Amino acid sequence: MPDSDLVQICDALVTHLAAQSLSKTFTVEKDYLPDFEREQLQSTQVSVYPQSTSIAFASRTTDQLVYTVNVVIRSPVAASANPDIGDDLYFAQELRDSLERVNLSSASFTGAQTEPAYDLETLNERNEFLTVITATYLQIK
Length: 141
Known about the structure:
The protein has three helices and five strands, in the order αβββαβαβ. The mean pLDDT is 92. By secondary structure, the chain is an alpha+beta fold. Strands 1-2-3-5-4 form a five-stranded mixed sheet, sandwiched between helices. The longest helix is centred in the N-terminal third of the chain and has 14 residues, at 5-18.
């Protein structure tokens, strides 16, 4: 059975990220039901999962499809009253920058957003850096 366009974009994104040489060593996988257990987190992990698809008319004969994909970055952080997450923020920036202007599975990158820059509660309670990059891709069909 063929995969949906959104799943194909997620698969292409996993392949793209796995080929990147960034400042941290990381694993990347597609995940439909992310379950983030701290006890299992030993190194930087990146999870890609589909978020949404929207459709609008582009012309009389074509549609404009916007696909949204979440890229979750998780990394263990040493317990501290003032943890240093500078390296993690830089890695998130590198990863986000690696998405720019990259076409995936016949869809064009249109933008990415990270808000907030990291999850303060997760950092405080679980000594874990957690951020979500929401990337959007456009396809005309």
